[in-house]
Amino acid sequence: MKLTFLGYIYIVLGIILLITSIARENITLFMLSAILFMIVLIERIRFRDLVANIHKSIDVWRDFERRICEEGEDIGVSIYIYNKSKIPIALLRIEDSIPRYTKVIKGSPSSYTALAPQSYVRIDYKLKFFRPGRHSFEEIHVSFRDLLQIYEYTTTFRIHDEITVIPRALEVREVFKALATLPGAGIRGLSKSGMYDIVNIRDYVPGDDARKILWKIYARTSKLMVREDLGETVPRTLVIVDINRNQWYIGEESNTLAEKQLRVTRYIIDILLKSYSVIDVLICSDEAVPKFVSEISLDRSELLYKVFEAITPGIGGCKKSFSEISSIIKYLGLEIEKYSLVLFITNPISIATSTPSDVEEILRDLGRNVAVIIVSDEQILELHRDIIYAIHGVIDMVEAIGGKGIVLKV
Predict the structure, then answer these.
(1) Which CATH number does the domain housing residue 75 bear?
(2) What angle do CA 264, 384, 250 make, to 5 degrees?
(3) Low-confidence ranges of the chain (pLDDT < 50)
(4) CB of 321 within 8 A of CB of 354?
(5) Which listed site, 94, 131, 257, 365, has its alpha carbon 20 to 30 Å from 205?
């Protein structure tokens, strides 16, 4: 609790009146100075009672129009302050600490108001969100003043709230064409085996329809393999999203390599969901380990927000992507064999900062149904020849185990 500028004026004026009354032996001036000092003292006692129990007397909370949106959309925010005490608050200033990558487009997160006893006030404003990921609200700063505005007390209410911003889908036609060639994506089109609407290729088990046996594969490998066509089975896909923290520094703000990769990921997931695939997602997060989200389907597409809430704009992602992802796959005990397709969405930064042994280990963990999609910025490929060689090396490793490597320039 501290004196306001007006409070100092009261005290200075009282001192001047007191000195003048003594010098002139004027009882009227003496009484006026005494009244000023009494006002300051009484207001201090009353305001001190409110301040002493401020966190018990005052409730503060936020409410949101919704907690999930897409890039570029706005969300209405309301701040409520409820005075449970019987003491009026003549002047109250409230200021919400808004997330960094947002812009106020209506109203204000800072406002002055009065608050009667046992009543509440509401402050409304709207924020536009520009970057995908988890945006956190942490604090609300509140300043109180007494009825005569002699004293002021400022406190902070630590109230944590989150908004998840889902990236816009970045449509890249090369992605759709590439996925349509993978026997496991469940996307209508010509597969790399030369058959239409193929979903999966698996080992033959007694009782399988002999017409589904892939005789060309048998002639080449001496293994009996059968195909599963679209409609005969529900494809299950594991999508691994390798976001490296350094990607946020490549490109312009709100259009960095990290954001481009997240938008491509959204597009890929949308394609898979429309093909009735069930999707499990493993994504690099702000935590010590990547986050795993399971059972995303067309009927449960609302789970998509759980994928992108793992990332904080500007800082989210893995430090050592390949090794961290490989470790969490082992820790979770993921049965890679149950997936008809594994999509590993990575970037040149992770590839350049990983050793060949890290790449070999994760490809070995992911198996032969893997497709590695490398999302790159055109400028990186033009300026860094060593990164191009590293990318080609990864693609060669993928194709050596029977998978497919795809480079997307966005």
Answers:
(1) 2.60.40.10
(2) 45
(3) 188-196
(4) yes
(5) 365
